[in-house]
Amino acid sequence: MQSNRWLLSLFGVAALVTVARADVVQDWRNAANYPARVTAVIWGNTRLDANHSVRFGSWTVRFAAPTYVAAYIILPQPDTPVRLIKIGNEIADQSPRCSNAVAGERSCFFQFLLSPLQGCEIDTYMGSGVGHTSNSSGFAIPCPTALDLQQ
Fold first, then answer.
1. Cα 89–71–77 angle (5° rounding)?
2. How far is the C-alpha of 124 from the C-alpha of 72, rounded, in Å?
3. C-beta separation of 65 from 50 below 8 A
4. Residue 43: strand, helix, or coil
5. Which end of the chain is more exposed for a tag (fewer CB within 10 A), N or C?
6. pTM score, two decimals?
């Protein structure tokens, strides 16, 4: 009886470890992978995660928290729905941080456009707190080669 409890406890811990593991996902454009927590965004040998920031032109992007939620979004449009993956939202502690010598530091988010347009960008939020608005002048970035996802 005692050995059964020990074995069940071991399986319980193993299940928790398995759930918390992040996997490098090469087919990150696949809707079946979402929603998911993102622990890293990868561009070839460059990695953005809680320990490593990245630079895009005059902007530095960092993760302020260890993970962020990524969502696969379909926006209805008159002709063709827009499909995209978004990482981050307007709540400051749920978004990466972008800083620029002129603009300062602010919350930002990734948008990976899938269709009908394709491309990747970062947009920043103006102001602070809940309800601040997106800046309409996002900037283009290379699309990632992979994402580390916890599903």
1. 95
2. 19
3. yes
4. strand
5. N
6. 0.78
